[in-house]
Structure formats: structure tokens, C-alpha cells
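HOLO CASE FILE
Compound: NDP
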Amino acid sequence: MYRSISDFMNSVATRNTGEPEFHQAVQEVTESLWEYLKKNPHYLEARILDRLVEPERMVIFRVPWLNDLGEVEINRGYRVEFNSAIGPYKGGLRFHPSVNLSILKFLGFEQVFKNSLTSLPMGGGKGGSDFDPKGKSDNEVMSFCQSFMTELQRHIGPVTDVPAGDIGVGAREIGFLFGQYKRIRNEFTGVLTGKALNWGGSLIRPEATGYGCVYFTEEMLKTKGESFDGKTVAISGSGNVAQFAAEKVIDLGGKPVTLSDSGGFIHDPDGINQEKLAFVMELKNVRRGRIEEYAKKFGCDHHERKRPWLVKCDVALPSATQNEINSEEAKTLISNGCGCVAEGANMPTEPDAVTLLQESNTLFGPGKAANAGGVAVSGLEMSQNAMRIQWSREELDEKLQGIMASIHNQCLRHGSDDGNVDYVRGANIAGFIKVADAMLDQGVV
Ligand code: NDP
Ligand code: 2IT
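Model generated. C-alpha cells follow.
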């Protein structure tokens, strides 16, 4: 048995060398759970935490494909099947040159707790490749996706492991992946979520992560008697999550003033309205251009290679990637009067920055709670596929709002003391209990 958190973390570091993002995710969860585990020693005796940090299965494979010049290209494919105690493995695929095992293990580990929080029967997994879809033709993306799925199809299935999108994997990629799965397996089945509406997809799935993040943030603001109305909101990213977070902020009377991509951020002090957002969606989803074009089109500033956190705002929604708010940026947010940070992305806030935000009583919503709306509606897509029906937009939006409110309640239940809410602790303990109890019930497997 481990004597301390550092004792436990040393063992994790030794078994998983060179995986800093994975260590970071495990450390945060371990710190949240430690006191709870000491009070509930049956989890420690059954070594549940040790088992939780060990993925059930990891697959790494070669992905060879031909580019438009007829040259051979090689990428590396991965699927980390982390935990299936409460349902089939479920989680996105990320295509980005930075992808490695550490990043996918951190994402898969987070997904286990996130999926548990949704209250739907989904285990946790994550996968992807170091393939970079940027600058590739549609044919090249298809060639890559077909090769990737030719191997991945052996390991997944609608009751085994159900991937979806993440960074670099959107409707186009899901289409190519699904087509290849169907061709090889001769099965039309709900093996992926995020499908297009006319072949098994769910309404509200594209919107779900961004909308869900804003619904969760609204619940947080309500605890202080506040709402989005009239609030200035800084958002990072300009992809799926950022776009629909901005849309819902506008709906609720808030004013999004920033968006970003890997080239920098735009600052529009007049606010990004629906019409400007439509331009962003066309720019990013159809033309696959750079956010800098927004600044040229609407006459505002583009800050090259910078992140939006120096802009004065009431709410910040980091929605691009991991570790995109450091402690200096957290200090700037605090001194600018930002009262709430909710993570649309996975682990965008560095640990020191989280501590600073929490110590300054800034409401802080961790990704596994705040961005769970995406996978929640993926779970609802699975249900609709299994029943061969389609729910309406209104029904799904209502279910999504209910799920985000329930996740918020679970955070309050396990994270409240002295009138303050530690949403990190609340989300980690609530997510843990359901998975840990299922593992106990199922024996040493
Ligand atoms: P997209 O690929 O649609 O968009 C990603 C955005 O983030 C782009 O604007 C991209 O800019 C920017 N970005 C990505 N990597 C970097 C980087 N290293 N530095 C700076 N900017 C970067 O992805 P999503 O919107 O789907 O995902 C965003 C985040 O949300 C991720 O953390 C993902 O894990 C998380 N998430 C996504 C869910 C979903 O349903 N899609 C669900 C829950 C969480 P550029 O185009 O220049 O690369
Ligand atoms: O991080 C995430 O929750 C996602 N990328 C969505 C996963 C899913 O299965 O919908």
C-alpha cells in the first residue's frame, strides 16, 4: 500500500516513463481522491486506483498510405482501451502531429471519469494518429482514413469500442472511417459516433460539446446568482468546440470576443455575433483557412502566436488543446476580473494555474465535467442507433441540459465545503465511485 501521493506517483512514473501528460492527469485525480480513499479503504485494499491507471489494452499500428504524388507515407495509429467497467470503450480519435502515447493515455484516462459522470453506460478510451490533416487534399485524408480503419476495425465494434471525433477528426473523417469499416465488416452499425444525420448520426451531436460547456458554466454562474447575460467571454480555439460554445454564449446574451488557432488569436471587442460566427464556420469547416482572415474581414486585431488570456473578460472557455493556460496567464485572468474558467478542451489549464484560480475563488470547471456534453450526446447517438430511431433536436437539447445539470449536481455533492465548491475534487470523486464500484462487483479482471 502507498504511504503518500508522491509514493503512488513515483510508481506511476516508473511504469510509464516519458509520459508527462499522462502523469499530469493521474496526479490531479490522485490528489482529489486521496482523502476519500483513506476514508474508504476497501478501494485501496482492492487496489482499484492501481488498476485504474493501467489501460486494459493499447494497440499501436503502422498506417501506410499514398499521397497525391503517389509517394508512400507512414503514420502511427493508436487505440488506448482504458476501462470497460461500466460500458464499451468510448472516446474520440485525434489526428494531429503532436499525438503520442502520453497524450492518448491522458485523454483516455480522463475519458473514463468523464463518461462515468454522464451517467450513461460508457467505458473510456481514446485513439488517433500523428497524421496531420492540415494541408492535405480530401483524397489524401480518405486514403489515410481507409488505411487507419483497415487495422482499427479488428479492435472496435458497437458493443466493444465506439470511437468518435476529437482534434482533426470531424464529419469528413468520420465519414471516410465509417465507409471503410462498413466495407470490410459488411455491417451497417453504430461503430462510430459523430456520423452525418442522413446515415445514423444524431441531432445536436456537432453542437453538444460547446453547448454543454456553456450549460455547465451557466450552472456554475447560477451558484453566484449570475448568468451569461452581458458577460464578456474569451474563447480559445475555432474548431468544433469553440464554434458552438460561441454560438450558445451569444444565445444566452453573452459577448464572445476572442477565437484562436495555432497561428494566434483574434480580438473583436464589438463581439462575435451570429453573422460573424457563420463566417468562421465557413472559413474553418469548408475552406479550412486560418482565423487571421477574420481580423482582415471584420477589421479587428490578430495577435500572432499568442493566446487570448491577456484580454479582459468575465468568463474564459479554453477550447483548443491541453496546457494552453499557464500560471502567468491565470494571474492575468484573475487580475482582469475573470470570475469563471470552464474547460471546453481536455486539460487546457496547467496544474499551477488551476491552483491559482481556485485560491482566488474563480469558479473553475474541469474538462471532464464541463466538456462531457459531447460524449454524452455520443452516448445518446448509440442509444438511437440501437433502437433504430431518431430523437428530435428539442428532445436531445433537453436531455443534454439535464445531463450537464446532473454533472454539476454531482460536483456539488462531492466537492462542496464552507460555501465553496471544488469542482475538480467533486468531478473526480463522483466519476470514480461509479467505475470503482463496478470494478469491485466484477472481480479481479
Ligand atoms: P478541432 O480540430 O475542431 O479544433 C481544434 C482547435 O484548436 C483549432 O482551432 C486548432 O487550431 C486549435 N488547436 C489544436 N491544437 C492546437 C495547438 N497545439 N496549439 C494551438 N491551437 C491548437 O477540435 P475540437 O474543437 O473537437 O477539440 C478542441 C478541444 O476540445 C480538444 O482538447 C478536444 O480534446 C476537446 N474535446 C472535444 C470534443 C468533441 O466533441 N469534439 C469533446 C470534448 C472535448 P489549428 O486549426 O491551427 O490546429
Ligand atoms: O474528449 C471527448 O470527450 C471527445 N472527443 C468526444 C468523445 C466521444 O466519444 O464523443
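CASE NOTES: The mean pLDDT is 98. Residues 90-92, 111, 114, 164, 166, 193, 346, 374-375, 378 surround (2Z)-2-iminopentanedioic acid (ligand 2) (CB under 6 Å).
CLOSED: yes
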